């Protein structure tokens, strides 16, 4: 196979491989899916050439995982083991930037909430989860979605020690930013 990057922006891609002398054709199976979630599009195509143009991402506004399997179809109905390629597609940094704390601000805790100020417009929303910062428990809370630049994250059942907060900006068309992590003392 030609070089295959782990990340791409989701444009059309020419897939090329070295021809197998015994192969009569090649089966290319490609599937775009939301990472660890639903399938968005599947493509299955047979070609006699050692190359195929893959279409661009079916949903370029959000991060998708592309998995490609290439199988040589040989004489007598024999098939090779699949060569598997994986790639994350999407330019989430440009179209949906990760959330940042407001300048000169740090998360603080009151009795039952975390108070957070982040760089946002009034209508921007943020998805937050918290977990103990000491790693004592790998269980995070369920996701809480909050709107606006000043947030009061409920900490029902949170331990008294420091917490690690995972924050993702929620953008248009179901897109999410990369996660930011904030320490709440």
Give a description of the structure:
The chain is mainly beta. 2% of the residues lie in helices and 46% in strands. It is built from one helix and 14 strands. The protein has one helix spanning 92-95, and strands at residues 7-8, 13-16, 23-33, 39-47, 51-54, 64-74, 83-89, 108-109, 113-117, 125-132, 144-147, 150-154, 163-170, 180-184. The chain has a five-stranded mixed sheet with strand order 1-7-6-3-4, with no helix packed on it. A four-stranded antiparallel sheet has the order 11-10-13-14, with no helix packed on it. Strand 8 and strand 9 (113-117) form a beta hairpin. It is elongated and about 70 Å long. The termini are far apart. The model has no long low-confidence stretch (mean pLDDT 85).
Which structural traits does this protein have?
4-stranded antiparallel β-sheet, mainly beta, 5-stranded mixed β-sheet, 1 helix, single chain, 185 residues
């Amino acid at each position: 196979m030609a070089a295959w990057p782990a990340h791409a922006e989701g444009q059309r891609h020419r897939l090329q491989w070295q021809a197998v002398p015994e192969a009569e054709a090649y089966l290319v199976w490609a599937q775009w899916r939301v990472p660890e979630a639903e399938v968005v599009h599947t493509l299955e195509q047979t070609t006699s050439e050692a190359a195929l143009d893959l279409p661009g991402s079916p949903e370029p506004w959000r991060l998708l995982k592309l998995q490609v399997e290439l199988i040589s179809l040989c004489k007598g109905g024999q098939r090779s083991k699949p060569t598997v390629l994986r790639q994350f597609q999407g330019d989430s940094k440009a179209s949906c930037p990760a959330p940042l704390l407001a300048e000169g601000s740090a998360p603080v805790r009151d009795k039952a909430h975390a108070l957070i100020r982040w760089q946002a417009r009034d209508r921007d929303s943020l998805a937050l989860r918290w977990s103990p910062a000491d790693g004592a428990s790998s269980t995070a809370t369920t996701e809480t979605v909050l709107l606006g630049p000043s947030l009061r994250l409920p900490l029902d059942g949170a331990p008294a020690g420091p917490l690690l907060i995972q924050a993702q900006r929620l953008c248009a068309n179901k897109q999410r930013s990369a996660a930011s992590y904030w320490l709440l003392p």
